[in-house]
Amino acid sequence: MLISTIILAAEEMGPNPIAPEAKEFFWGAGTFLVFLFVMRVFLVPKVRKGMEVRYGAIRGGHENADATRAAAQNDAAAYEAALIGVRAEATARIDAARQTLDAERQAKVTEVNTRIAAQRAQADQAMQAARAAARGDVASAVGSVTTRAAQLVLGKSADSALVKSAVDGAMNRSKS
Fold first, then answer.
1. pLDDT of residue 2 exceeding 80
2. pLDDT (tens digit, 9 = 90+) per residue, 112-136?
3. In angstroms, rounded to a whole number, what is the distance separating the alpha carbons of residues 110 and 122?
4. Exposure pattern of 21-36 as b/e (b: 16+ CB <10 Å)?
């Protein structure tokens, strides 16, 4: 019963202000269909075309970035290969220069050693000559001292051949 009273009360109030009338419904549906047609025919293709252009630009940017990355990697690999070649060439040049310097140094050392050996031989000869001269001087000085000492001790002069023989013998024994 309560429901029937509510329905009767609603009928007495008049038309529902929220419920659309039939002509409003047809005008709204017609406008919707026209708007749907305009959207489908004119606006959606333009939006779709714009999106495809945008996606194409993005894809092109990605492809361009990939190509640039690949080119950069190729350039880096070429640079590394060139760097390895330059390092190998530099190492070869350094080794060649080192060998040249070693050969020149060895030649100079040999030359200097030859000069030193020649000067040493000359110095040895000069020393031998000086020794021989000094030995002769010493022998004659020892001989004269010995002769004078023998003369003072014996009171007579000693035989010079005998003194010379004794001095030479003593000097030969001290030399060995």
1. no
2. 999 999 999 999 998 888 888 877 7
3. 18
4. eeeeeeeeeeeeeeee
